Structures are given as C-alpha cells and as structure tokens.
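re: ur question from earlier - yeah i can do the single chain one, its not a big deal. heres the input i used so u can compare w yours
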Amino acid sequence: MSYYMNKNNAVKRGEIYYIAHSKCYATDPSNAAGRPAIIVSSDKLNEHADVVEVVYLTTKEKRLMPTHAEVLCKIPSTAMCETIYTVNKDRLGDYVRTCTDKEIEAINAGILCSLGISAPTVAVERERKPLTPRLLLRGISISPSTRICSIR
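and the output i got, formated as tokens:
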C-alpha cells in the first residue's frame, strides 16, 4: 500500500481514497501514514474546490450505531458517518474503488442521522379519477386526498 499523493483532482462522490497524514482521532500515531476515506462532498464542490469532505473507514469492531455504514474497502470496513472531515485534495493518495449504490444509500442515511435530518418528503396531488363500475360493485370508494411520498 502506497500513500503517495494522487495528482488526479477529478474526484467523484462515493470514491474511496487513502488520505495522507490522517491523524484521525489524533491520539493514534499509527494513522500518520494514511487511512482510507469515502468522498462524501458533492461532485459540484469536488469539481471547483481545493478541498473535499470525507468520512473515514475503520476495520476495527465497532458498536452498532445508526451512523455507521458497512462498506467494502479492500476488506470489510465501517464508514463512521458521525464524523465528516474536510481535507485538501493534495492529501488524496491511492484510489481504491467506488462505492456501490447500496453502500452510498447507507452512507447517506448515516450522515442524515448524524445531522438529525429526516428524509425529505413531498406532497403529491393525486388526480381525481371517476369511479369505475368494477370498483363500485366491490364497494370501494376513492378519496381525492393528498398523499405523502418519501423520495428515495
């Protein structure tokens, strides 16, 4: 595993990189060489800024928390979504892989939980349709009420 600086600044959300000089939880000197992290900042920010926002990964056994997400780095790991760090792109090391859609969903849920934000909801106005004879025969009536859907 090498931790040389990655000259590629075209990073995307959901990619896993080693971050050089990561003294995450500053008391552990073994983290000085680098540690894997997932890019969680938006692609728009990643395109224009000199920094990215990351969530670090750990392979240590962690207590089950709603802010943790299971991710496969090179080995099964846990994304600690309760701590989001801003790091300079100059500290990006080797690219590891891109997270799957399922992993990204778990990371998004962990970040939302950590920040105390619930998933957005939208009111969708349903078009009132006339009752069909089949529905009338079964005694089913349709109400033109507004229904709430959650976006996924």
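Confidence is low (pLDDT under 50) at residues 131-152. not sure if urs matches, ping me
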